[in-house]
Amino acid sequence: MSVAPFSRSALLVLFSCAFLLFSLSVLLPAYDTAPRAVSASMTNSYNASAVGHAVLYEMLRRLDFPLSRRLGGQPVPRGRGALLVLAEPDSGMLAESGAELLSSPCRLLILPKWRGVEDEKHPGRIAEAEPLPVETAARTYLTFADGAGTVVRTLWPSAWAVNELGVTPAGGEVIQLVRSAKMRPVVGTKAGMLVGELREGESRVWVLSDPDVLSNHGLVRGDNAAFVIALLAAIRGEGPGRAGGPVVFDESLHGFRQPEETSLRLLFSFPFSLVVLLICASGALLALAGAQRFGVPQRAIPAGSSGTEELIANSARMLDYAGYQDMTLRRYARMTLRAAGHALHAPPGLDERALAVWLDRIGRARGVEASCAEMLSEIDRTPSGGRRALERLFTLAGNMHQWKEEMLHDAGTRGQAR
């Protein structure tokens, strides 16, 4: 007598799950508010490549700054103490959004300097950075600072004629400066200003002429992080008993817009989301109530099966029965060491100790805290025999496995983007 592969109740459950997945595929995209795609060449606070500002945004967030992003379609912040950050605005968006942003009473304008070229082999990174024409930075300055002046590039100075912030910034070989008779120099040399302030009535515009001091690749140089904190404190008027206002990164100038409100999005907003949750829960309970089992029960694997999983399990039981746990764990640790060395292309001819030292040096560069050399030494010092020694060897073998996973997988994702 043949048995049907699925019962009627199982088919009902399968069709219900398929309908639920289809509904989620339609509804969830309407609830997604994240930016669609962030190019590695874009100079915005979402971009983690060398020319982006994601590191700056994350640093300020961890320092508990009242931080947010402004997208296209959202109001310009005009509250007391609010600072609008215009970080390397896209020249193609100047005509569309420039006039609206000029109404903000306090702005920090960061002039553009680089154009990133995306790395096709490594998504999220750039292959190289090309300097933008000086005219691009000058056009941005004239549009958003609303003042006369010029932008020049010269060698990075060895000393500053004016530095009201008290922290010395670090940079590369060439610095981009602004020359303007209308601006008050805050940090600058005789050649021009790195930081300047322009006041027009109640409106204040601070200009940072060179983005290298706060972009992802430059923020880690010297005291640049402290320089940026001092700059924001000066702009926001922070001091004893005085807290600064919110800091808003404007991303409308990089093409990011606020998602449009739809009826589907409304379903996932409070309090309507509670109704949707109850409907889904009711449907799930109804499906479970009508389901007895999913298809025909699988037959039990007979004893002595030659399947791969059973073969491995039998081998493990035989080793355990023979008392080879100590030898197996020690050999596993050394096999793990050699496997990691092979995967990371270790120099040929290294003995076990030299290979461990080489891998530890690579691990430190990748941010791996564990040391395989120390773990191997502890394995060698662990005596053979005894339950406690066997438990210690098992723990060390597990640590070696975790170390190898971090070396080959987890640590590789923490490398700095170019």
In short:
With 418 residues, this protein is an alpha/beta fold. The chain has helices at residues 8-31, 54-62, 94-101, 134-145, 224-236, 263-267, 272-289, 308-322, 325-343, 352-366, 372-381, 387-410, and strands at residues 67-70, 83-87, 106-110, 114-118, 126-131, 150-155, 162-163, 174-179, 184-189, 192-200, 203-208, 247-250.
Tell me what you see in this structure.
By secondary structure, the chain is of the alpha/beta class. It has three domains: 8-28 and 261-289; 54-254, no CATH class; 308-414, no CATH class. The protein has helices spanning 8-31, 54-62, 94-101, 134-145, 224-236, 263-267, 272-289, 308-322, 325-343, 352-366, 372-381, 387-410; strands spanning 67-70, 83-87, 106-110, 114-118, 126-131, 150-155, 162-163, 174-179, 184-189, 192-200, 203-208, 247-250. An eight-stranded mixed beta sheet has the order 1-12-2-3-11-10-9-7, with helices on both faces. The protein has twelve helices and twelve strands. The longest helix has 24 residues, at 8-31. Helix 1 (8-31) runs antiparallel to helix 7 (272-289), helix 9 (325-343) crosses helix 10 (352-366) and helix 11 (372-381) packs antiparallel against helix 12. Helices cover 41% and strands 15% of the residues. Residues 411-418 have low confidence and may be disordered.
